[in-house]
Amino acid sequence: MIRLDHVSFNYPAQGATVRDLSFHIEKGEFVAVLGANGAGKTTTMKLIDGLIKPTEGKVVIGGKDTAAARVSERARQVGFLFQNPDRQICKNTVRDEILFGLCSVRKEDGEDTLRKRADEVLSDFGFSGDEEPFSLSRGQRQRVALASILAVEPDVLLLDEPTTGLDYRECCHIMDRVARMNREKGVTVVMVCHDMEVVLDYARRALVMANGQLLADGPVRTVFRDAELAEKASILPPQMIGLSLRLGAGFEAADTAEALTEIIVSKGGIPV
Length: 272
Description:
Layout: E1 2-11, E2 15-25, E3 30-34, H1 41-49, E4 56-61, E5 64-65, H2 71-74, E6 78-81, H3 94-105, H4 111-125, H5 138-150, E7 156-160, H6 168-185, E8 188-192, H7 196-202, E9 205-210, E10 213-219, H8 220-224, H9 227-233, H10 239-247, H11 257-267
Parallel strand pairs: 3-8, 3-9, 6-7, 7-8
Antiparallel strand pairs: 1-2, 1-4, 4-5, 9-10
Helix pairs in contact: 3-4, 3-5, 5-6
């Protein structure tokens, strides 16, 4: 579904921000892109979406080179949820916000079909169509932005820090909906996220970046247990994995409280 082959990108007057980046993502994967600020994560997301074109190399989405396609042509295939929903919402009602995307990329379906689809999404997300987006909470506005993207039914969903500024309940609303689309519809999800607990709960594969380069690519739990990699990329593992690593031999496999408790009981206690 997604292929980057030796991709580099230079912002004018800033030098290279992504260098010789290569990876493949299959349809239906749920991938987290990890790394410190300035590692090149958001630039990579923009390259996948076609918002920017590579200085070198090739980005291919669904078999098509993004260099040969307009951003508008990518909109039906790739949805991008911004970190700040207020930079994404542009209509005065929730119904019009959902219809905006639908009418932009699926206008051939006809007005009646699109309005029916918008009503289905409103019902699914629990919104009233007449609500004003900017009268809603931060978490609700993020859900409106997500609803407008998922209404189009893209093949790929890009999430740039989707849980920033959300409380635990709002975070679960957003991420559970994304996980359901990934599981039931086979939507390929690529997520930039600094919340390692969210990454552990939802993503299955991690791409770790630093200084515009790919340091590691592997299963999330394997990546989090690599202390040397974590130091290079300036990332902290989730609390349970961090604790299990500190406890030492025999505890490394624990990544939940339940798993750690079982190991402690089996060993007759925690080593001193």
